[in-house]
Write a structure and sequence with these properties.
alpha/beta; Rossmann fold; GMP Synthetase, Chain A, domain 3; six-stranded antiparallel beta sheet; about 25% strand
């Protein structure tokens, strides 16, 4: 094992530049996950993981020491080796926030590859991932009323004939159709019975992207990719054995599993897991500050929606002085949320920007450096982050933007994926050696990165580009707005018009018309003023608490189509509207009754064509 120290936390860009003056091979403490796993044993009998079975702060936790964690990882790796897993095979898992997820994740990477899967996907989508990842073993959570994972397993097995073994965590299925995880692991020897030539460039894991539109893409991570992030996440947030970390991200996501799972553990921190439901556990939510007090939690991790929930809570008399940091990420972080956490609780917030293809981190705000509103911090050491011009929707890597100028962000570095499992996807995401993030942003003269939106989220109104973040920031400054999201709505005249979906603060009674009138003066660009606000009780979310804008764009398009057809389709006519995905093309599908008159069909086609939406029409 490499015994080089993890070194001190970053406080400035100078610290990052100083680190880069060392040869990379000498600077990094780990090059393979085998070294990371062996490093965990150095923390001895300190508690590594505390699991709260029901999310109740007053219940006894189920604790695993670092020594026992290391032992169980070796045993689990031996088990997968015995089941025939080799370097080219994957161990897929469908697991909630339970300790067995970490055991499966790390041990499978010692003998083969891990493949964490979002258990909320349907069985067919999961089966596609299992097949594409060449998974030989599936580890799944057993029968459970809260999760509904196990009912999908039989269908997954039917659709994946090459899947050889199913291992169940938790409750045993009625027909004893799978090996029990605990029985399998506990019978294994505690010394290594497997051997793998761990190399930094060997593939360690396969993560699927969010899959919010179409089939998810499968992203490969090497040992080197992951070790780079495990090492440096500690330096940005100063994780240490003194920390107790509440990780709000699911363990099938790179942020939850790698960055804020293995990352803190590799620094000797204790992970506090609030039941299989994580932060969604209602018992935990209602007593979150009591949990902080009892367990002396120091760091909480969760996106803007988690911060919003916290701001609507009251610590009462509970002592929350142990909390030194909240880490956010996954989307732009409104200054109002950062300021609110500091003002109400005295808890600083730091932002992270990353994606699956960059092993979860690209730029971060160090805990021991000042937070700059709107910034997601400095780039990861030994990497390059640049802003390039766009032309015709494509990146121009020969035209780098000036400091402060907005363009398309691209990245190079040791944490960048070697590519997708399906190489056909690579051409869409790589250009001239750069990984093209799809994010719009700028870099200031001090090297800090600022996100301004997604390239595909830009609203184009009559040829005028409108950044949705401009609209969202104006709305979030209003005291009656809790959450919001701006998207483009199809329009016959302008191509698109800006609209926004708004979730009002608890107790607010303001109308959307009055709200719109009150924010008009916030806009210097009249074209950016939203044409309409839609009130929602809640937002569709990704698994990491990020607003699912594709769903909102669909809703806006559906509304535009419905309003367009109201004067064309006879009253009482059954009209079904849905969206279909084929590759990267989303198509609106209209279904009309079989007896719809030909002239009406013609007018329908003409009306929808004017909205410039790809569509098709069927009758039934």
């Amino acid at each position: 094992m490499n015994s080089k120290p993890l070194t001190k936390a970053f406080t400035s860009l100078d610290d990052i530049l100083a680190l880069e003056r060392q040869p990379y091979e000498q600077a990094r403490p780990f090059s393979t996950l085998d070294e990371v796993v062996d490093h965990l044993a150095s923390f001895g009998d300190r508690v590594a993981i505390s699991f709260m079975p029901n999310g109740d702060p007053d219940e006894n936790t189920e604790d695993i020491s670092f020594r026992d964690l290391h032992r169980k990882l070796v045993q689990t790796a031996n088990a997968f080796h015995k089941l025939g897993v080799t370097a080219e095979d994957s161990v897929a898992y469908l697991l909630p926030s339970v300790p067995e997820a970490f055991l499966t994740l790390l041990s499978s990477e010692l003998v083969g590859r891990s493949c964490p899967i979002n258990y909320m996907l349907d069985a067919a989508a999961i089966a596609d991932i299992v097949t594409s990842a060449n998974a030989k073993v599936l580890v799944a959570f057993g029968p459970d009323a809260d999760l509904g994972i196990w009912p999908k397993v039989e269908e997954i097995k039917r659709l994946t004939p090459k899947l050889q073994h199913v291992v169940v965590v938790g409750a045993e299925p009625p027909n004893r159709s799978a090996m029990r995880f605990a029985e399998l692991v506990n019978t294994m020897p505690t010394e290594r019975r497997f051997f793998r030539n761990g190399r930094p460039d060997a593939v360690a894991s396969i993560y699927h992207t969010g899959g919010s539109t179409g089939a998810p893409k499968l992203v490969q991570h090497t040992h080197g990719n992951q070790c780079h992030c495990i090492w440096l996440i500690r330096r940005y947030f100063d994780f240490s054995p003194d920390d107790v970390v509440i990780n709000g991200h699911p363990l099938f996501h790179v942020a939850g599993a790698l960055n804020f799972g293995i990352g803190p553990l590799a620094a000797g921190a204790r992970l506090l897991m609030p039941s299989k439901l994580g932060l969604r556990n209602r018992t935990f939510q209602s007593a979150i500050w009591r949990t902080v007090e009892r367990h002396k939690a120091t760091v909480m991790i969760g996106g803007p929606t988690v911060i919003t929930t916290l701001l609507n809570s009251d610590p009462g008399k509970h002592d929350i002085s142990s909390m030194r940091l909240h880490i956010s990420g996954g989307s732009q972080l409104p200054a109002e949320l950062v300021n609110g956490m500091a003002a109400k609780f005295g808890i600083p917030v730091r932002n992270v920007w990353g994606m699956t293809e960059t092993a979860g981190i690209t730029c971060l705000e160090p805990a021991r450096a000042p937070s700059i509103p709107g910034s997601c911090g400095w780039r990861v050491p030994f990497t390059q982050v640049s802003v390039f011009a766009m032309s015709g929707g494509k990146i121009q890597t020969s035209v780098e933007c000036a400091p402060g100028e907005v363009g398309l962000l691209a990245v190079k570095g040791p944490h960048i994926t070697p590519g997708y499992v399906d190489p056909a996807h690579n051409a869409q995401s790589f250009a001239d050696g750069w990984f093209v993030t799809g994010d719009l942003g700028r870099i200031d003269p001090d090297g800090r990165t600022y996100l301004t939106g997604r390239a595909k989220d830009v609203i184009i109104r009559g040829g005028h580009n409108i950044d949705p973040l401009m609209i969202e920031q104006a709305l979030l400054q209003h005291p009656d707005v809790q959450l919001c999201a701006a998207v483009g709505q199809p329009d016959s005249y302008s191509g698109e018009i800006p609209v926004a979906f708004v979730q009002l603060a608890p107790g607010s009674t303001i109308s959307v018309d009055n709200l719109l009138n009150e924010i008009r003066s916030s806009f210097q660009e009249p074209a950016a003023i939203p044409k309409r606000l839609y009130r929602v009780d809640s937002f569709p979310m990704t698994s990491t608490g990020k607003i699912l804008k594709p769903a909102l764009r669909q809703k806006a398009a559906e509304t535009a189509v419905t309003e367009k057809l109201n004067s064309i389709v006879p009253s009482g006519t059954s009209l079904e509207i849905s969206f279909q995905q084929s590759g990267h093309q989303e198509t609106l599908h209209l279904r009309l009754p079989a007896n719809t008159a030909p002239d009406v069909l013609g007018k329908v086609r003409e009306a929808v064509t004017s909205l410039r939406i790809p569509f098709n029409v069927s009758q039934a």
